[in-house]
Amino acid sequence: MSLTNSVRTASSRPIFRLAAAAVEHWPARLTVVVGRLCAARWTSRSLAVLRAAWAPTLLLVAVSIPFLGVGDYYIHLLVLAGLLAVLGLGSNFMQSLVGEANFALGSLYGVGAFTVAFLTVHLGWTFWPAGCVAIIASSVAAVIIGLPALRTSGLYFAIVTLGLGAISTELFSNLTAVTGGVAGTTNIARPPDFFWQPSSVSFSEVRGFYLLVVAAVAVFAAINFRLLLSPIGRRWAAIGQDELLARSLGMYVMPYKLTALAIAGAAAGVAGALYASYIGFISPDAFTFWVAFQVLLVIALGGGGTVAGPILASLFMVYAPELLDIQPKWRLVAFSLLLLAVILSRPKGILARR
After folding, report:
1. Taking all residues of the chain, what is their mean pLDDT, rounded to a whole number?
2. Does the CA dihedral 211-352-88-96 come out positive or negative?
3. Which one, of 129, 120, 133, 109, lies nearest residue 178 by Cα?
4. CA distance 74 to 315
5. How many angstroms separate the CA atoms of 74 and 322, rounded?
């Protein structure tokens, strides 16, 4: 075949025709391609900036709320929502990644609250050392509950933790020397102020205590940021997706499950200590399985495996019934319908990734 015929044959192939067309119109096409690359690069940078900036921005907004003239009642609701968010963020690993529903969370919440109440009222401790002991006590109680309960999984784990939670509630009611029995414990002191703390944000006032709760939420949000995408977070996710496969690959799953449960216990200890100090009175009725049900609902509603999801869902759970300005007997019905509508529209959670 001659050289002329070879060139003619090659030029008749589709790939060479496309190359010729690209060369013919290269200035316009190059401009379009460069523009798209710049737009994509700018979009990716913008998304990265937004993802990195949303948490500090929300923290700044949350800290500034007490100074914006918001009423004490709405600050009180924010405190309750913050305590619920701490519980949700602490249980995020156990429920969202490991995939186990812990119905003994109310008991761990009560361990933290009654520990602070006993140490401050009966032994005269201040809040800060009593709070540290409460965190340790709740974490140890979580491990003690987990040792027998984590031998099961799924529905059986939920039933075991529900039974252990019911036993703990009865212990709270009968250990009158420690918990005060069904009458509860009163006169629980607020945390003492720091020496540099201005009087306008004293912990004895609702606005100052709100800032303390914001700090607790920020700490557990940071823990979630750090652990969700860490190696231990990926191991939790592997256990939740297929525990048998994880075991077959040589993973010893019990320590990872106990770690997730201990983190949930530590969060329950923090929330319980803050709740007891904030309210000033606690009784066993406040630490039933209903607490665990609320936390499970917060995680499912906000989006499992997210950081902002439990926080947003906690605000919804606390504020939605208050904003429904209808008769009290219909308020729970309206809130249930609203909750059902949100779950049906976003079955994976409000902020879950699609």
Report:
1. 82
2. negative
3. 120
4. 11
5. 10
Output Rg (C-alpha) for the chain, integer angstroms: 27
Question: Residue for token digits 């994976």?
Answer: 348
CA atoms within 13 A on the CB side of 197: 17
- Reported pTM: 0.82
- How many C-beta atoms surround the C-beta of residue 232 within 10 A? 16
Closest C-alpha among 226, 308, 303 to residue 54: 308
Residue closest to 267 by CA, chosen among 245, 283, 286, 291: 291
Residue 184 phi, psi (nearest 5): 80, -170
State the Cα–Cα distance between residues 116 and 134, nearest whole angstrom.
Answer: 6
**Domains of the chain: residue spans and CATH:** 1-46 (no CATH), 58-345 (1.10.3470)
51, exposed or middle or buried, with CB in 10 Å at 0-12, 13-18, 19+? exposed
User: Measured between alpha carbons, how far is 61 from 71 in angstroms, rounded to an integer?
Assistant: 16
Burial, 22: exposed, middle or buried (Cβ in 10 Å; 0-12, 13-18, 19+)? exposed
The answer to whether 298 and 312 are in contact (CB under 8 A) is no
User: How far is CA 345 from its chain centroid?
Assistant: 21
- Closest to 289 in 3D by CA, of 114, 143, 101: 101
Name every residue whose Cβ is closer than 8 Å to that of residue 285 and which is 6 or more positions away in sequence.
Answer: 182
Per-residue pLDDT tens over the stretch 235-263: 999 998 888 888 888 888 999 999 999 99
